[in-house]
Design a protein that fits this description.
There is one protein chain. This protein has 409 residues and is of the alpha+beta class. The longest helix has 30 residues. The protein has one domain: Orthogonal Bundle (Cytochrome p450). Helix 9 crosses helix 17 and helix 10 packs antiparallel against helix 11. The strands form 3 sheets. The protein has a 6-stranded mixed beta sheet with strand order 1-2-3-9-6-4. A 3-stranded antiparallel beta sheet has the order 5-11-10. Keywords: Iron, Metal-binding. Its cofactor is heme. GO terms for molecular function: heme binding; iron ion binding; monooxygenase activity; oxidoreductase activity, acting on paired donors, with incorporation or reduction of molecular oxygen. It holds the Pfam family p450. Belongs to the cytochrome P450 family.
Length: 409
Amino acid sequence: MPSPVSARAFFRDPLGYAIPGPGDGPLLRMRAGAAPQVLVRDPDAVWQVLVTDGDRYGVGKWKRRARRVHGPTLNTLNGAEHRTRRLALQPAIGRPRVRELGGVLDARLGGAGADWEPGLPVALRDELFTLSIGATADVLLSVELGANARRLALDLAQLMAALPRLRPPALVAQHRAALQSVRSFADGLIAARREGAQGRPGDLLELLLGLGVADEVVRGEIIAFLLAAAEEPARALEAAWWLLARDEEADRRLAQELRCVLAGRAPTLADLDTLPWMRAVLDEALRLNPPARYIDRCPAGVMAVAGEQIPKGANLLISPLVSHRDARHFPEPEAFRPERMLGERRGTPRGAFIPFGAGVHACIGEPLARAIMGLQVAAIAGRWRLAIDPAAPEPTPRTPPLWVVPEPR
């Protein structure tokens, strides 16, 4: 490996430091504390760490920080405990369950944007967060949030934005109110269900209560799932519209596809398989702005990765943000080109495109996230063209919310 770079410098400008160039190696060492830090840049090595040898790695130190918000939950567990819980919860959130509850998603999201007014600015991230949380709470927890959806979405967004840099004092000082609000919401659901309130058979809350764990663990899982629901669909869609606003042809093609397939009606989950251009737009937006910008893993013992010995206790970092911009696999990597996502992408290594991770710790909610994203795009883009200030920066976790102006199609 080449000489290590500063982890702080890397996180300030990950693309400037980490995109592999001709002759660059697959691993990049970073200086960050006592434990070795290594960025895995080669897609085959990425696949090896996440999938081939996935059972021999646990979640890394940055992922474990989330325990300060929701305790030990599915996304922070390792080994047999992780496998057991994932298998137990999968029926409530897997692809068959999402298809089964397609009508719920249609009702929640098919009317997205219907109450907007032409020319009246909309805070897009807030709207998308609120829609995503409302749909997720209904599908997973059998709860109608109503007017509480926006407040819950804002609390979750505040926690998610702060999570990477949380320290206990900062959590107490800056985020205590948001965390307490979210915990109270989850505690209320648990208490109501234990007192006899009915949900849909097989929903996430029923499966969690059936685990026989403490209510604090159930609460933590509810918060963890809601945090993911607040983050993944909304940020990806905000980035998608920023990109579409700068590509008139891609936007025109999207509107044309929606007119041909929907003919003016509200979209349904069943329609998403008949909208290949829309799926390509979403995948390209996920390539450029992946929900999980960084994934970290910790080997349980000494491991060989790309010909290098990685010691036990090292923190391996995988960055979809970096991997998705590898020009060897995505020519003109900074360009928004949805057409590259059409078809099967033959020749692209499996580890080159991982917006939801891969392997044993891959995002369990990917089918639901994709359904939520697809329905929101189909509903909103079928009604509106979203005008965006040309000076607005590309959305990232650190940029202010994006404001858009709806213009009728």
